[in-house]
Amino acid sequence: MKMSGLGLTFLTLPLVIQASTAGHRRKGTGIWCYDSQDLKCGPSHWKDITQSCGGDNQSPVNIERKKTQRDMSLDEISFEGYDQAPAGRWKLLNDGHTVTMNLDGASAAEQINITKGGLQDTYRALQFHFHWGDVNKNGSEHTVDGHQYPMELHLVHMNTKYKTVNEAKGHPSGLAVLSFLFKVSVMDNTNYNTIVAGLRNISHEGLSVDLASTFPLSNLLPNMGLLSKYYRYKGSLTTPGCEEVVVWTVFEEQIPISQSQLNAFVSTLYFTTGAKPVKMANNFRPPQPLRSRKVYASKDATISDSPPLAASLLFPLLLAFLTGHLSGLC
Ligand SMILES: *[C@@H]1O[C@H](CO)[C@@H](O)[C@H](O)[C@H]1NC(C)=O
Ligand SMILES: *[C@@H]1O[C@H](CO)[C@@H](O)[C@H](O)[C@H]1NC(C)=O
Ligand SMILES: *[C@@H]1O[C@H](CO)[C@@H](O)[C@H](O)[C@H]1NC(C)=O
Ligand SMILES: [Zn+2]
Asked: What are the Alpha-carbonic anhydrase domain coordinates in residue numbering (predicted)?
């Protein structure tokens, strides 16, 4: 949009009004949005709304694989209930920022959990949602070696030590989010048909649809046998209030989805209703500085440029030699 100096003055008032309607207010949080919706409340402004969005441990991040640190205690995550279709209904909701599926209504017997894989506690699945780009642009939140992927799935879990989400948000390991990146495939991923078909019933904020059927959560993921390769770090929620309470797991194996299935997300949905409806696209936060944090690589994850075996064997020998030598000197 081009504006003369004069035009800008006249436009200031309407823009301010628009900003207050286009965004979304959540309890305890100011108005926020994505740049694709309105530049006035996009990610660069979130820290003005909620101080923690400007913190030192924010998400997402770029995972630089050669800088990750191998952690042999990061073994296979144990997925409980991921292979069963829950009884009852699954409700898909347009919350004005993304499409989200609530998983937490089920009875205790049907709770879906994750444990092990370096997690100190059991975490219960609460919901999943997506972040995506547009027809010409990738839209994942996490990037790997600077590479952004077309879409990202977040499965949000809560530490079962806590009673409520709000309580969990008060503790540094209160939440665990599993993140899966997508890749474009030639064929449709038929396991996504039910979700994709439901999108047209929830084009606007607040609309929800009961999916025709439930299915095992594992249907939405890559082959479970490939999930021992992942990256782990401590970060935050990627939307305001950006609470720094998330144990992140970003999987190496990607989920295939066809271009036409991706396009259904981009072209069917609308953001929070403002002055005029805006297509829900590019609803991702860009990578945040890693600062002093480390990203850990699981036992099986790929670390490019890992030091050759000879160097890792010789170094301790050299060190032993030098220490011996030095102590001889003293
Ligand atoms: C998940 O954990 C809860 C509480 O520990 C338990 O009751 C439930 O059976 C677990 N779910 C599965 C599928 O194992
Ligand atoms: C977007 O993702 C696709 C599929 O993974 C990839 O081929 C392409 O290089 C990506 N584009 C950018 C700009 O990263
Ligand atoms: C979804 O919308 C279609 C029309 O676009 C309609 O036929 C169908 O009944 C709707 N489904 C539900 C569950 O509301
Ligand atoms: Zn998310």
From this structure: 30-299
